[in-house]
Amino acid sequence: MPRIARRTFLAGLGGAALTACTAGKPAPPTTDSPAASTSPSPIPVPPVTVNAATGPVLVPGEPLRVVVLDTDVLDSALTLGITPVGAALPAADTGFPDYWPASRTAGIWLVGPPGAPDLAAVRALQPDLILSNQARDGDRYDQLSALAPTVLTQSTGAPWKANFQLHAQALSRVAAAAAFVASYQKHAGQVAAALAAAKPSGRRVSLVRFTEGGGIRLFGRQSFPGIVLADAQVGRPDAQNVDQSDFEIPLEQIGRADGDLLLYSTYGDPERAGTDAALASPGWQALGAVKAHRAFPVDDQLWFQGIGYTGANFMLDELQRFLGT
């Protein structure tokens, strides 16, 4: 989407909006970095008990030094106005998602990939709260909770809206969360209305992701992008109109990726992920969306890793643009 549109959107939600990407490993937060310099409230906020996937967890009121260990909690924290002191990023990512301005991520110290964080690096950041999920970090919950109160959701992806509410409770940002939810719901309704009024010729949207080590994956209704499409009242191809998150197909079955509109991304290197081979294959070239010039690459960090309300809002705008309204 145009960069000015992203600036306008974030400004309307009360945040800055520049589309810059932070490459490489930033310097660790210091006492004068944005992540570490936030002043506590004049009146101390009492601790809060949240019902995490592991049971009740007592967390500090308005935590300041937060470490996030997956991409969904990165979106949640930044959406709610908290810059984490540390974050885990997928190994193939070269920097933070560029739908966030560099000014929001410059002070975040990388602590390894999701599912394999560097515990020594987490400890060095002296967090007062750690956020993740059981799918990634359930087997190291005791180690993490020894470093700081640790709030885990059961999983990520499909339950992203419920997870956001838990993140908001843990971050003492419940009121702000309600405002973002209402804004998103209004936005989704506006996009759905615009699409209905425009009556585009085809609205069945296919979602395809090429991943290193994961092959070709199609995404169903029970996934983060699938739910965003449903919120915009957009249909899905028969092969993806299923109550699943995602499933792998061989290249020989690439016909199942067809739709009126096809959106695809690559996680990692396009050659190693099989993107280059797939796009050059006769099967891909025979897809109706490809022949109609309605197959478009999208940002993997936004469409498949964002998993939060800010990412979802940008996706709605891109969807509307792709469908020509």
Brief summary:
By secondary structure, this protein is an alpha/beta fold.
Describe this structure in words.
The protein is 35% helix and 16% strand. With 325 residues, the protein is of the alpha/beta class. The two termini are 13 Å apart. Residues 1-39 have low confidence and may be disordered.
Proportion of helical residues: 25-40%
Report the total helices.
14
Rg over CA atoms: 20 Å
Distance between the termini: 13 Å
Using DSSP, what is the number of strands?
12
The major sheet is characterized as: 5 strands, parallel
Helix-strand string = HEEEHEHEHEHHEHHEEHEEHHHEHH
Could you report the average pLDDT, rounded to the nearest whole number?
Answer: 89
Low-confidence stretches: 1-39
- How are the strands ordered across the major sheet? 5-4-3-6-7
Summary keywords:
alpha/beta, single chain, 325 residues, 5-stranded parallel sheet, 12 strands, 5-stranded mixed sheet
Question: Layout of helices and strands, plus pairs?
Answer:
Blueprint: H1 3-12, E1 48-52, E2 55-59, E3 66-68, H2 71-79, E4 86-87, H3 102-105, E5 109-110, H4 119-124, E6 129-133, H5 134-137, H6 141-145, E7 150-153, H7 160-170, H8 174-198, E8 205-211, E9 215-219, H9 224-231, E10 246-249, E11 261-267, H10 275-280, H11 282-285, H12 288-291, E12 295-297, H13 300-303, H14 309-322
Parallel strand pairs: 3-4, 3-6, 4-5, 6-7, 8-11, 11-12
Antiparallel strand pairs: 1-2, 8-9, 9-10
Helix pairs in contact: 2-7, 7-8, 8-14, 9-14
